[in-house]
Amino acid sequence: MDTHAAKDPSLYSPLARFAGAAPDAPAWFVSAVARKPEERFVEVDGTPIEMLTWGEIGKPGLLLLHGNGAHAGWYRFIAPFFADRYRVAALSWSGMGASGWRREYRVEHFVAEIVAVAEAAGLHAGVAPPLIVGHSFGSFPLAEAACRHGDRFGGIVIVDSPFLTPERRELRRRERGARPQRPRELAPHRVYPTLEAALARFRLAPLQPCANLYIADLIAREGLVRVSSEDGSEGWTWRFDPFLWRDFHMPDLTGVLGRMKCPAALIRGARSQLMGDEDFEFTHALMPPSSPRLEIPDAEHHVMIDQPLAFVAALSGLFAGWPAL
């Protein structure tokens, strides 16, 4: 059992107590979210990929990649802090957010989405190659892209991604092997009758406390979509493809860390459940020599939710002196 869940069962439904209302938010958050991005789609291998952009084309490029089951909106309150200095873009991976779904998903698809969105968003129009930040799952295709196309990137930032030690990979393999596998037709998303009911079921994965529930509310609302049932009734369900991982098995990409063709940096939440001390050291040791590494104090895995302003400050400080031109 998750240790957090054992202490606090409310982690399974952190927004339930608001009964569908939005929690109060601080002024900085309201101001950031009010800076609306341009929203459009770019087709990649026959699938429309959602793309949000801020800032002017011609400024240095910055691409923000989200984690598994998330969406581009996880950066709506982060990207505006960089939009005066950068041309910023955030994408929703295929099968997630408002992007289209695929019949099958491969690492090659996600790599192609990085390259296509960077190009379509005008991130290469600046004087320097774009920087790319990948959180959690987002760093896996990013690391692969840095091997294949790293000569086109100024640098990449891996944020709290579970590149695990061999011991932890073996432990996770055994744990997954012991779980029963459900057939595709038995695992669709549940449809909730009201937005209030759907929001009440939102939770972070892995389960963890969330002090900034106004952020959880924002990403939960954007992660839902209204649907109609066969009987004509309407309800709400999650946007991401529930079957994305049914036939997709992420290869072990740990080995690519030492073959990346551009500078790389590493960030983790100091209290992360997914990137422990040994994983942090293990991952950093595989990366190019002299790769910067930073920890966000009082943050767990979802660093942009746990400590959004500290995350902005960490990236800003990193970009101020890295990579060397």
Structure write-up:
By secondary structure, the chain is of the alpha/beta class. 29% of the residues lie in helices and 17% in strands. It is built from 10 helices and 10 strands. Strands 1-2-4-3-5-6-9-10 form an 8-stranded mixed beta sheet, sandwiched between helices. It is globular. The relative contact order is 0.15.
In short:
This protein has 325 residues and is of the alpha/beta class.
Write the layout of secondary structure elements.
Blueprint lengths: L2 H5 L19 H8 L3 E7 L2 E8 L6 E5 L21 E5 L15 H14 L10 E5 L3 H11 L5 E5 L6 H12 L17 H6 L12 H10 L1 E5 L5 E5 L25 E6 L7 H10 L6 E4 L6 H4 L1 H14 L4
Parallel strand pairs: 3-4, 3-5, 5-6, 6-9, 9-10
Antiparallel strand pairs: 1-2, 2-4, 7-8
Helix pairs in contact: 3-4
Can you tag this structure with a few keywords?
325 residues, alpha/beta, Rossmann fold, eight-stranded mixed β-sheet, two-stranded antiparallel ribbon, 10 helices, 10 strands
